[in-house]
Amino acid sequence: MRSDASVQGTVPHTAAVRSSGARLFFKRLFKQKSLICMSVPFVIWIFVFKYVPLWGWMIAFQHYRPNMGMFDQEWVGWSQFRFLFEDDSFLRVIRNTFAMAVIKLVLGFVTAITLAVLLNELRIAMFKRTVQTISYLPHFISWVVAANIISTSLSIDGGIVNQVLMWLHLIDKPIMWLGVGHYFWGILGISEVWKDVGWNTIVYLAAMTMIDPSQYEAAEIDGAGRFQRILRVTLPGLRPVIVILLIMNLGSILETGFEPQYLMGNGMNADFSENLEIFVLKYGISMGNFSLATAAGIFKTVISFILLFSANHIAKRVGDERLF
Amino acid sequence: MSGYQVSAGVLNCKCLQKRLTNYLERGTKHLDQKKLGTLALIVATAASLAACSGGNGNNGSGSSASSSESAGSGSPSASASASETASSSPAADKTPVTFTYFNANSQVPDIDSNKTEIGKALEDQTGVNFKMQFPVGDVNTKIGTMIASGDYPDVLAPDTAIDKILDAKAFIPLEDLIDQYGPNIKRVYEPYYNLMKQADGHIYFLPFSPVVGDYIPNPTIDQGAFFIQRRVLKEFNYPKIKTLDEYFDLIKKYNDAHKDDKLTGFTSLTYDWRTMGIFNPPMHLAGYPNDGDVIVDMQTHAADVYSNDDVTKRWLKKLNEVNNEGLYDQSSFVNNYDQYLAKISSGKVLGFFDYGWQADQAIQNIKKSGNDDLDYMPLPIVFDQNTKDQYLDPPSFVDNRGVGITTSAKDPVRIIQFFDNMLKEENQVMIQWGFKGETYEVNDKGRYYRTPEEIEMLKDNAKQQSIGFTYFNYSWPMYGGGSTLSDGNSFNAGRQPEVAQASFTEGDKLILSKYGVQTFSELFAKPDDRPWYPAWSISIEQGSPAEIFQQKSKDVKLKYFPKLVLAKPDQFDAIWNEYLDAFNKLDVKGFEDTLTKSIADKIAKVTGGSSGN
């Protein structure tokens, strides 16, 4: 495009610019050769693992059978997508996916930032480190184990949650927490927070160390109390990090995870626990219908793409940090 | 007609094999035993090839004739030239090799087969070791990912996912391999070839249920039954109970008398694919055996989905009532398989419906604790006094479960030779009975039996694993359950009357005597003849409307059944109607038609009538 436009302009001048531009480019390329060398593996990695698989999207338009070649398959057009959108449960699945995503996003951000701010205010290093370590720990438990811990604590025969609530006389008979659909989102949200809150604080704690201590001193001299300092110095200092993370998380909002829903889900809470991943597993992989699974994957990618770009656009409009 | 021809062929094969083996034995006395065995095997294979390929007049019969000739002369070159045809010289046979085997039928720890005693013995015979792997979690997902990657273990028993594997053409056809290397496989499986052949005429896997010899029924209950704890029966002086109402009345009476023990009246398993505990009872209560999602009419052979019928309503209504009395274990709907087993093992559950094989681990745990009061009694409970129960399986050939060799297998020949070696009668004895003097004895009449010490020792799951029974007595090419050995002993140790009697505990004997029977299965009615049985083994095409119906109906049932059971009694009917609406939106009629047609096809195949159509 650019070269086209310049060709229409004054010819001799453009030629000169172009040759010097190219020369400049190669000069710079040579200068930064070590940087280029370092980044090449990653570009290749992205190409191989993120772009090459895209050609597999063809499967979504076929009635794919694994034992036949890619081009011997039967082409079925949009019928896989039609199956998705015409299925009664698909709408419910989408609703669950979005609800769980929003809960996870909001709860995740609020709790992580709060905990990070609180940790930052701690004076006793020993105590701070202990709290940090304890809050990181659940992150390293796999979901299989975590789900068992959760379902055991919520069990109606002797689960700790019911025991405590009974003891406090808040309820008079045990509640089957995982048996009531409406509770599922809440249980999932709390479980996710328990598991990941400590881990998520790391990036905020790191960002806080970047805030210039003189700002705090100045605020203190101006008479700002502790809460005022948090409100006026710490949080504004974190703002760029928060916005960038928010945009990035919006891009993967539909990845609500698979393990917790699968492991804690059952017939009684299926209306609320089934998300896109489980739907794909049931009707795609379990039935050997890889085409349907791929179609659902494409749908997810398109939605994520739209969300990511709109978030970035909004960030640009309000004049904040942005991804690109 | 065709059935007659096949059996005649078998006879021919056997005669020829015998004569040739005799001849060989006379002519090759100077060879050592092992070589002799191999030679005999090769020649027998070749002979059976020649006999069974009949009038085809292909070069197979020609080459086999020449090989038997040279083998008969007993010269050193004999084995070499024979190995050219059968490609199984003694040296090549035993090079140690390890294959992988993924067995989706059971969930036990992964193991190298040669770490078990039986596996070691088989390795000594063949040089083959198997790295055996078992699923964790959902089988369909595991198999689905295997298919997606195209990367299979050498040997695979895909259990419920077998249709997917066949659909993906992941198994290699076995007929030629069997013809060439598997005289024993042929001996055991040939009568069932008709049922084993897929639509394209190939045999892709070896099922686990080819009955050899006379059929011996199981003296204990490994199929469906309503289990009740023995202390309940004892307390009321062993009453005869037949109907569902009587069953729950008894449980209620017992529970009322022992309020302080915090007992659970009745529990069910509803986890993952193991949903039979709540889905299947209506069928059994109405007097039908386990045909899966449908009841098959004895006269018209029409399949009827019973989940939207009155029988299901009646069953759930009863559970609702039981739940309202505080007897139903509400956590049934959230417990996983482990939690369910733990619950039963605890001895606090008065009753449950399940299949013997599924609850067995828990029941064995209770047996080990030695408190007979906590042990269970299986009963054939039905809805009405005049219903005849049909819990026991009719003799049947399950043709959609089995083990096959995958396209990833590096050396199918070695594997099929291993299979064939396994099917030798002495190895079948080892796999089921173990080692003489260690796990079984033979009396002077040639009958096998086990001493009380051996029986006690084998109750230990760890021992079962270290000997290898856990890993070998199912999921391999094998004689079907209930087979008889050529010397008249039972193939299954558990079905040998001597063992069954000796393995009953004092408590077992007492309760059996109270009911005036010798074995547990005597309490159950004899199974009627059902040539299509079991309808659940009918394969359903991948991704077809019928399969989608199965998945969706399961989802609907899993959603509504808990609601129906846990609802307040006055809301039951409203929820039932809601459930019917949701269920009948699915293509019930289409599914029934598909199954009715498949049942007709299977009946035709089994009875051999119109298989040509």
Automatic annotation (TrEMBL), chain A:
This is Sugar ABC transporter permease. Belongs to the binding-protein-dependent transport system permease family. It is a multi-pass membrane protein. One of its GO terms (biological process) is transmembrane transport. The lineage of its organism: Bacteria, Bacillati, Bacillota, Bacilli, Bacillales. Keywords: Membrane, Transmembrane, Transmembrane helix, Transport. The chain crosses the membrane at residues 35-60, 98-119, 140-168, 174-194, 236-254, 290-309. CDD domains: TM_PBP2.
